[in-house]
Amino acid sequence: MGTHTVTTPFGRRPMTLGLLANQVAASEIDQEARASKWQVFRDIREAKEALGATDRALAILNALLSFHRADELTAEGGLIVFPSNEQLIRRANGMSPATLRRHLANLVTAGLVIRRDSPNGKRFARKGQGGAIDQAYGFDLSPILARAEEFKGLAAAVQAERKAHRLVKERLTICRRDVVKMIEAGINEGVPGNWQGYLRRYEAIIARLPRTAVRATAEAICDELEDLWVDVHQTLESFINSQNPSANESHCERHIQNSNPDVSSNDESEHGLGEIDEASGVGAKNDNVRALPNRDLPLGMVVDACPELLTLARDGHIRTWRDFMEAAEQARPFMGISPSAWQEAVEVMGPEKAAITVAAILQRSDRIASRGGYLRNLTERARDQKFLVWPMIMALLREKLDAHAKAASNNGRSGADAAEGDRGVTVEISDALRKNMKKKGWER
């Protein structure tokens, strides 16, 4: 093959310094250089974005390489291929001529091939004596051989960047999951801490995360999330370490009692209440970190535990939490609870939990002398995070089930006694009836 010389594009295509630089670089190939054309193609495909090559351009480059008969590209062998547009279209899966020309230009601009145009723009080869190709016009593949090591390095860099990006995305996903679930655990378990502040901080960090984040942005977000993770984890760990691991979890299931049930005072002072030991979860948060969570109760369960409130409900039915709170508001004055005690309970516990507390007090009103004072006592404990409504409702439901079981047992015994008595009863009949039965053949 003849010596490569600088050639300009045929027709109206302009000559640029970039094209000239690619041709000069291709002419400086080491004579002993060789490379597997398909390995180099895989490297180019891996680094296509860094090279500026399109998917269609790579399909055309794959077709051009297929016209090079040897599997290896060498400086000594001919590196110019000269297929016609029709042949290229067929091997490039049938793209249109306009698309072919556009992506051939992309290959040239990216420095992957060089145009060696003939005087008339045709692609052909002129053979010399013995059938060897003496001069060829077409597409020169020498830049692929000349830049093989460069393409290999670019492919390795792209793979390393992709792996690093994948790892930082995994790190981001795990960190987000950990932070969210630890905050939820802290809130649900009633752990003292600035949980709303942590949530706002988390939301502010995630708001800066774009839909498609580059690695640098993702790493910056990860660093901030990990700082938040440390703060949340330390809050939970400090709380766990402050607990007594040998505490008895049964403390959260104690029943409401009044040491002086005969006191009939209706004032709201705590005098006369005695030592009240309610099934309200008092001390649960200080006894054990695994105490019952401060979670929402189902409405049906609360109504089933406090049926007395139905007598004050509109139409005798409670279908929503709004109905439940209205009924509790109606029950308040009948129970001797002042508006100030009710308002304080609502502010500390929240409307729903305050209503549940009033309903539970109403259900056991026969055992509580001062309902208003008792509500104030529970409000103060809720303020100190020592009161939960969940164990209180559980105790009422358990008491109801025990009462039903006891009633069923008593009914069974009374029925058995009645049957035993029936067997010992003698029925007396008149003489006239006895004679009549004998006439019809009935013997006593």
Walk me through this protein's architecture.
- This protein is mainly alpha-helical and 444 residues long.
- Helix content is 56%, strand content 5%.
- The strands form two sheets. Strands 3, 4, 5 and 6 form a four-stranded antiparallel sheet that branches. A two-stranded antiparallel sheet has the order 1-2.
- The longest helix has 41 residues, at 148-188.
Helix fraction, binned, reads 55-70%
Estimated share of beta-strand residues:
5-15%
Q: Termini distance?
A: 137 Å
Q: Sheet bearing the most strands, described?
A: 4 strands, antiparallel
Shape: rod-shaped
Helix and strand content put the structural class at: mainly alpha
Strand elements, count: 6
The low-confidence runs, each spanning 5 or more residues with pLDDT under 50, are 244-293, 421-427
Question: H/E series, N to C?
Answer: HEHHHEEHHEEEHHHHHHHHHHHH
Number of helices: 18
Question: Descriptors for this entry?
Answer:
two-stranded antiparallel ribbon, mainly alpha, 444 residues, single chain, 6 strands, 4-stranded antiparallel β-sheet
Summarize the structure in short:
With 444 residues, the chain is mainly alpha-helical.
Secondary-structure map:
Blueprint: H1 17-26, E1 34-36, H2 37-46, H3 48-51, H4 55-66, E2 72-74, E3 80-81, H5 85-91, H6 97-109, E4 114-116, E5 124-127, E6 133-140, H7 142-146, H8 148-188, H9 195-207, H10 215-242, H11 284-287, H12 299-305, H13 321-334, H14 339-349, H15 351-363, H16 371-383, H17 389-423, H18 431-439
Antiparallel strand pairs: 1-2, 3-6, 4-6, 5-6
Helix pairs in contact: 2-4, 2-8, 4-6, 8-9, 8-10, 9-10, 12-17, 13-15, 14-15, 14-16, 15-17
